[in-house]
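Quick one: structure tokens for this chain, please?
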Amino acid sequence: MNDIAIDSDATRVSNDYHPAYSSRSADIVLLSNDGVKFRVHSSILATASKIFHDMFGMPRSAEESHDDALPMGESSEILKMLLDIIYPRDTDPVLPSMSFPFLRHVLSAAEKYDLARVNHYVRLLAKTELFNSKPLEAYALACTFGWDEDAQKLSLQLLDLDLSSPAHADILKSINSASLYELFQMRWKIKVEVLEVIERSRDEEIEHLYGCNCEDGNVPDNDDWDALEMFLRGELDKYPNGSSLRQFPWYHGDLLRLWNLKCNMCDKLLVRKLSLEKAVIKALDEVDFTNRPLSP
């Protein structure tokens, strides 16, 4: 395969062909669905794909010409990307787009033509810093194209991502229902565990949370603690690892009554807000978020 000559611009044929794939030494013509032709080497395609290997292994009619185009059912942009990845070159291919729809389309086309090298290349790309800010996109690709180990790791990166945001709707819709179920089951189990640890921690440190020691003074009633629990549940629904509870002051409107409650004996605040925040963060530190298998 390495002895195939990739012609220079001076030896390429007419403008009917994509300028990057118009080599005179090529023996197959591929046609995109937007009318662009690609002259390519059958040996490269056959090496990259069993589908092409079997296709080119079949006897060709004597009436067929090497210039007869094979319709590929893909755009010229997608087709060029597939060829750029499977062709032997000294440099890595340059993707015209890193958008989720484009990469998903590239991988779908690669799957259709059994181009495992394309799947492998994009999978490696999804592990680079280019995707550090796009874990949900990488997770969706992993679920769709069989990267099970990657999906497991990426699911943990989604613990501080609010999946209820409308901004994520299109990507979530692209994920199969089984993978979505496993993801949300994992998030729900973590939320339940975190709430249990927080509740236990609050009960253990309750005496340090009160702002006074008056024996006959009033205490927060159940409605006040229920408001706190609802607040915690709401934040953990969005961010199961509690990242929002670590980063933002707890000035939620529903908690103002709890923070403003005063002892009817000494007029001190009943609940030490800072102490309660610290107790919750301490509880979060006790939870292991690193070993969470995706399972029904």
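Residues 191-285 form one domain.
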